[in-house]
Amino acid sequence: MDCEKEAALVMSTREKRKNTPHLLVVDDEYFNYEMLEVALSGVFELSYANSGTSCLSNAIADPPDAILLDVCMPGLDGYDTCRMLKNTPETKNIPVLMVSGLESEKEQKAGFDAGCDAYVVKPFSMQSLLEKIKSMV
Question: Response regulatory domain location, by residue (predicted)?
Fold first, then answer.
């Protein structure tokens, strides 16, 4: 491949990445990320964090367009992570969608009280999740 074609390919790849919304998926179970990656990678650029602490550092270093945040994680749980994201100047405007198997009104209220922009209960349909994400980014 000559230099001009290679440069054009690099530029088109960068342009595509620039125009593709970036989602940070935060879940202590990597399998959940893999399922989301298969379902959503055609529409979004996905990256992964396995804890609340790594979510915070990743979100500051490479701000995503939205964060899909699991509630039940060891250490810093989703609620505390969301509070920290919403109280950090560099991350406070990033939409946070909490994803959880906890479906009670009390749990959902706790998510919104922590600052999440949306709350989705597992199991969910990929179509409804996709629509929620698209409404946020």
Answer: 22-137
C-alpha 117/C-alpha 61 separation (Å) is 21
Model confidence pLDDT, tens digit, residues 79-108? 999 999 999 999 999 999 999 988 889 999
Q: For domain 21-136, which architecture applies? A: 3-Layer(aba) Sandwich (3.40)
* Residue, of 102 and 7, whose pLDDT is higher: 102
Tell me whether residue 92 is exposed, middle or buried, using C-beta atoms within 10 angstroms of its C-beta: 0 to 12, 13 to 18, 19 or more. exposed
**Angle ∠(123,30,129) on CA atoms, nearest 5:** 35
Please give the Cα distance from 82 to 95 (Å, whole number).
10
Q: What is this structure's pTM?
A: 0.85
How far is 88 from 82, CA to CA, in rounded Å? Answer: 10
